[in-house]
Amino acid sequence: MKATLVIKNIGTLITLQGENKARTGKSLEDIGLVENGIIAVQEDKIIYVGQGELPENISVDRETKIIDAKGKTVTPGLIDSHTHLVHGGSRENELAMKLKGVSYLDILAAGGGIHSTMESTQNANFDELYSKAKKSLDTMLSYGVTTVEAKSGYGIEDFDTELKQMEVAKKLDEEHPVNIISTFMGAHAIPKKYEEDPDEFVDIIINEMLPVVANKNLAQFCDVFCEEGVFTVDQSRRILLAARELGMEAKLHADEIKPLGGAELAAEIDCISAEHLIAASDVGIKSMAEKGVIANLLPGTSFNLQTGKFARARDMITEGVPVALSTDYNPGSCPTENLQLIMSFASLIMKLTPEEVITGVTINGAAALGLEDSIGSLEVGKKADIAIFDAPNLEYIIYHFGINHTDIVIKDGKIVYQ
Ligand code: NIG
Ligand code: FE
Questions:
Q1: What EC number(s) are associated with this protein in UniProt (predicted)?
Q2: Atom of ligand 1 nearest to the CA of 331
Q3: Residue 39, helix vs strand vs coil
Q4: Other residues' Cβ atoms within 10 Å of the Cβ of residue 348
Q5: DSSP-derived pairing of the beta strands 323-325 and 294-297
Q6: 176 is in an annotated binding site
Q7: If DSSP codes are grouped into helix, strand and coil, which group holds residue 101?
Q8: pTM as predicted
Q9: Is 330 assigned a ligand-binding role in the annotation?
C-alpha cells in the first residue's frame, strides 16, 4: 500500500482508538496515547497508526508528503458539535446591559437578543451570510476543527431566512474543507406575532416548515430552544417527534437557564444529544445516563452569560452520561469560534481531566453528530482528519490557555491549514 501522507516522529499521539461510540466512565481514561507515533494516510483515509517506523507493507515515494511532528501533539481533527455558525450581525451592543446585570432572558423578552440577530440575518443576503460564516469557519479550522455542526434559527417565522441559512451551510459544506452538519432550529424563539398563541407557531413549524426542510434535505437534525418564555417541554416534544417522523434526529437546548425538565424530555424521546444542561436536575441527568443521551456542554456560554453557573459535568460523568464539548458559537450567548479555549474552560472551570476534555471534542463530539464510525478517532479506515499542535502534550494545550496551538490541520488527507 502506498501512503500519500505520513506523519512521523510524533511526540504525543492521541488516537482515541477503541470502540466507535460515545465514551463514558472508565473508557474515558484510555485516550490511546502513543509516544513516538506514526500515521500513514492514503488519499482521504488512515491506513496505519502505530509507533516508530512504518511496517513493510506500507511504502512511500517521492510524491508522499512527509511531516515530521517531533515534539508536537497529534489528535483527531477537533469536532465542534454545536454552533449557530450562519447569522448576520453581532451583538456587542448588549455588553453594557450585561455589565449592568440585565439577564439574557430579560434582553430577549425586551425584543433584543435572538430577535435582533433575526433582523440582521433577514437583512443579510446569501453572499453576505456566506462570507461571514466562511470567515468564522476559517477561524475554526485554524483552531484545529475539521467538522462543525451549524444550526439555523435566525429566520424563525421568516422561513425564507431559515432556508437561506441552511443553504449557506450546505454551500459551505461543499466548498470549504471543514465538514458542516446542518440542524434545523426554527424553534429558536417565539415570534412577537405569536406571543399570544405560541401553539399556532408550533403548528406552523410542524405542518409547514419541517416537511419542506426534509424534502429539500437541508438538515440532518432538528433542535428546539426549550426554555422559560421560549418553547415548553410539550411544544418541544411535539416538534421533535414530528421531525423524527421526517427523518431528522432530535437535539434539544435543554435546561440552559431554568430547570424546565429538558434533560428529562431528551431522555424520554431519545434525543441524540441534549445541549447546555446548566440547570439540569438530578433526575434528568440520571435518565440521560440510562438512555445514553449525550450531554453537549458549552462552558463558553456559561462564562459569557456571567451567571457563574456551569453545567455539572462531573456529576454527569459520574452518573455515566457521555459528555461532548462545543463552542455554541453564536452572536449572543457565546461569540467565540475558539474550541481550544472551550477545552481550557472545561478543564479549569468544570474540572474535567485532559482525557475527558479531548474525548469531548473528538469521539464524543462525533457521536453527538452520529459520525462516530467515520471520524473522532485516528484508526485504520477512518477519515484522515488530523490536527497537529505545536505543544509537547495534551495538558500543555489546555494549560496554556487563550492562544492558538495549531501547527497543521489535515482534512480528508490534505493539508488545509499551516
Ligand atoms: O445556545 N439558547 C439559545 N440559543 C443560543 C443563543 C442564541 C443567541 O443568543 O443568538 C444558545 O445559547
Ligand atoms: Fe446553542
A1: 3.5.2.7
A2: 10
A3: strand
A4: 14
A5: parallel
A6: no
A7: coil
A8: 0.98
A9: yes
What's the CA-to-centroid distance between 156 and ligand 1, angstroms?
A: 13
Cα–Cα nearest to 369, from 75, 208, 124, 149: 149
Which pLDDT does position 59 carry in this prediction? 98
Q: Where in the chain do CATH 2.30.40.10 domains reside?
A: 5-77+377-417
What would the pLDDT profile of 213-254 be if each residue is shown by its tens digit?
999 999 999 999 999 999 999 999 999 999 999 999 999 999
CATH topology of domain 79-368: TIM Barrel (3.20.20)
Going by CA atoms, what residue is nearest to atom 11 of ligand 1?
A: 333
Quick one: cell of 335? 461569540
Residue with the nearest Cα to atom 5 of ligand 1? 333
Instruction: Yes or no: say if 310 and 299 are a contact pair by the CB < 8 Å rule.
Output: yes
Which ipTM was obtained for this model? 0.97
Residue 104 CA: nearest ligand 1 atom is 9
Q: 36 to each of 56, 78, 94, 160, 403, how far by Cα in Å?
A: 18, 21, 49, 52, 25
Q: Where in the chain is the domain with CATH 3.20.20.140?
A: 79-368
Q: Cβ contacts of residue 278 below 8 Å, gap of 6+?
A: 255, 256, 257, 301, 302, 307, 309, 310, 311
